[in-house]
Each structure stands twice: as C-alpha cells, then as structure tokens.
Write a structure and sequence with these properties.
With 502 residues, this protein is mainly alpha-helical. The protein has helices at residues 2-36, 48-52, 56-63, 74-77, 80-84, 103-109, 135-143, 145-148, 182-191, 201-210, 245-254, 276-280, 284-287, 292-296, 331-369, 373-394, 399-402, 404-431, 445-451, 456-468, 470-480, and strands at residues 217-225, 228-236, 260-261, 268-269, 299-302, 305-308. It has one domain (49-484): Flavocytochrome C3, Chain A, domain 2, CATH 1.10.1130.10.
Amino acid sequence: MKKLWIILGLCVLVLVPLLLLTFSIRENKAEQQAITAVPEMKPFESRSSEWGKYYPRQYDSYMQTRKSDEIHDVLKDDPALVVMWAGYGFSKDYNKPRGHYYMLEDNLNTLRTGAPTDAKTGPAPTPCWTCKSPDVPRLIHRDGELEFFTGKWAKYGGEIVNPVGCADCHDNKTMKLTVTREHLKRALDAEGRLKFADATHQDMRSLVCAQCHSEYYFKKTEWDDKGTPKTALVVTFPWKNGLSAEAMEEYYDQINFVDWTHPLSKTPMLKAQHPDYELFTTGVHSRNNLACADCHMPYVREGGVKYSNHKVGSPLDNIANTCLNCHKGTEKEFRATIARKLERKNELSKIAMDVLAKAHLEAAKAWESGASEEEMKPVLQDIRHGQWRWDYAVAGHGAFFHAPEETLRVLGGAINKGQDARIKLRTILAKYNAADYVAPDFSSKEKAQAIIGLDYKKEVDEKNTFLDALNQEWFKQGEAKGLYDPASRKDMVRKTSYNIGK
C-alpha cells in the first residue's frame, strides 16, 4: 500500500508541471493569436494610438523613441558646414536626428522650414512633409500626388499633425508591411536591381525604411489643374544609373540638376539627404541578406509572445540582442571595433570639410579678383563633385556601420576632388595677384555664419513667432478635424539648438 502511495505521489509531481505547462502554452497561443488577428482599421488612420489598441507591445516600444530627445547641434561641432552650405537652409540649423517620436516636431522647429505667416508663405515647399507623417499618404490619396507636391509647406500645416507611425509601414487591412510612398516603387523599377513587384517579405523589412531613408530630389513637373498651369516638386530618387555616389552624381549631371547655387563660390551645388539605404546595399550586412529591421527593430520575446521592437534606434543600444546574434566576442570588444571604424570615418570627414570649405572661400576670392567663367568652370565642377561625395558618405548617419569600406572610399574621393579644386584655384589666384590669400577663420558656428552673412538672430526671432502663433493654430485645426492624436505629443517639450539657455 505504501508503495502505491509513493507511485501516486511521483505521478502527481510529474503531471502537475505538465498541466501547468499545457495551460501556459494554451494561454501564450491564445495571446499570440490575439496579436496576429487582423483588426478593423479605417483607411489612412494616422493616429498611432488607435493602432496601439490592437498592438500594445509594438506601440509601447514605439513610444520609447521619445527617450531619444537630446538636441545635438552639428553646426556647433563642425562650423565648416556653415560655409559649405552657405545660401542653403542647412547653414542655419542642423541637428543630429532624434527618435521617430520627434519626427514632426523637429520638422516644425528647424530653422530650415522657415517662419510662414499663412498657407502661401515661407521658404519650404510641400514635399518637405513627405517623410514626416502618416498624414501624407492620406493627403496624396485625397488630392492626388501632383497637387500634394504643389505649393508651400504651410499649405498642409493644419492637416499634417502626427509624427511617423504605424500607417507609414503597415497595410490597414492585412497589417502586412507596405510602401506608402509611390516614389520608391518608381525608383526601384527604374534602377532594375530589385523590381518592387518581386520584393520578398525580407526585402520589405528594408524597403519600408528606404521610402524615407534614401537620397531624393524635388523634380519640377509641369501639370494642368483644370486649365490652370501648375508646377509640382515631385519627390524623386536619382537611381536610374545605380545607387552608388558616382552613379547618382552622373544622373544629376546628365539632367543639369542643381539644389542651390552657392553664393560665395557660385558652385551649382548638390545636397545629399540621407542615403542610408543606398550605402546599406553596398555593405556586408546587405550581402548576407540582413534587413534594416534585423538590427534596428530586433524581435523580442515575452513569454510565448514574439514581436518586433518598434523602438527604432541604434543597434548599439541593445548589442546582445542585435550585433552579438551574429558576431563573436564580447560587447566590450565589439564596441571597441565600432569606435575604431567611427574614428577613421570622422578623421576623413573632418579633412574633407576643411578642404571643401576653404575651396568655397578661395573660389569667392578668385571671382572677386577677376577670374572668368571659363577659368572657374573646372574648379566649380570639382567642388560640386567633392562636396556631393562627402555628403553622400556622411548624410546617412550610420554609414560607417552600414558600409565602412565604401564610406571611406567615397570620403577619399571627396578629399581628392576638393584638393583638385584648390590646386586649380592657386593657379588662378596667382594669375590675379592674390596668391597670398588665406581663407578667413571659420572655427566657430558664429564666425562661419558671419562670413556667409547670415542674420541668425532674425531667423530665430521669426521662427519663435511662428511656433508660438500659426503652429499652435495648426494643431487646433487638426484636432477639430479629428486628425490629431494627443498621445503623439504626450509630455512634449520644445527643444531646439537656438533656444538653449532661454
């Protein structure tokens, strides 16, 4: 009898954990099924908190991007940029990017978008909204692509009131990844390496990022609006000849495209935006079929639930769950390797900036001294190509990580082009009795902005007036229309480089 009770006790000891495990598995499966169930979302729902009702884990992790709120003034660190970007908005204000949570806020705050007083004023055109908000696809669908890309940035101020979110990357019916900006589809098909129709799910885990994290320009497109001629500035990727710096440079030269003309050197300039995707495709991670999301949105497990972490940020913030899934060694060793790569990139970038800034100033002196257009043409071509290559290599902030060899190669080319321009300028300056010219000191942001004649205080005062007045009205209009998501600005504090200390 005693033996029977012992056997019975052992059976209970075995069966109870098994029963608990069974219940746990069932519970986790039920929870996973609830996560994978497709909810009813209305078309073009731009309020991410509405999506968050069905996907709380993804939404909560997305909201963690608000912790990346530091303002880092790049112009203060690298004042040569002010000279290089003279006459262009970036010479006024340029900060390192913050989290997705601040995408719209930073677009509103930057001095680059100016200080409009109504829907028809200000320096920026409507395409400057393109990658800042899930309200954009709704407006393109409603008004048509050409109308959306026509007019001033302030035109849509009261209707673009939510930052980048769920609707930018997910289909509202199936929840599958989707591209909501048609310009990416056109660019892929034109380049031909990967036709959009052939994109796999793994491809899509990069392409949803590429629709914004890529180089673009505003293509002037004439169109007729019921008898009224209009000009749209359509966001276009310059990928027809390929994705390399030289391929896009060739494309721009072939169509004689100019972002702006430098007021000092008179160079017809190009401004790279953020060619993250293009550089990524040249690197070892892409060659091994990794996607952007593998490193920037790694999977997370909570019990039996697996989901993608939407706290998009640097993989170095979570090395154990990103880099060390593939790389050997310790976290300390890995950080040391990355630091060395970054040092090399920064060293070459600093050299390129110094060379190019001085080339602009020396070119201005050459013009002042009497140089002819024929003499200056090859100089300006070198400056254009040198600065484009430098910008291509650094405008994507993770370039040194995505493709370190390609980044260093392109930076080397930028330095060579800049030095070629300066050698030619030395000959021209000597010809016009200015051989002893030395570029003025641009070692601080303030000195550099004085050299280019920028009235910084005026820009700041006008911007603050806009932020305190018209900008506030835009959010009220968005709320009245049922578009604005208050959760998207929860605990939002205005932080800018130009108001620090006030």
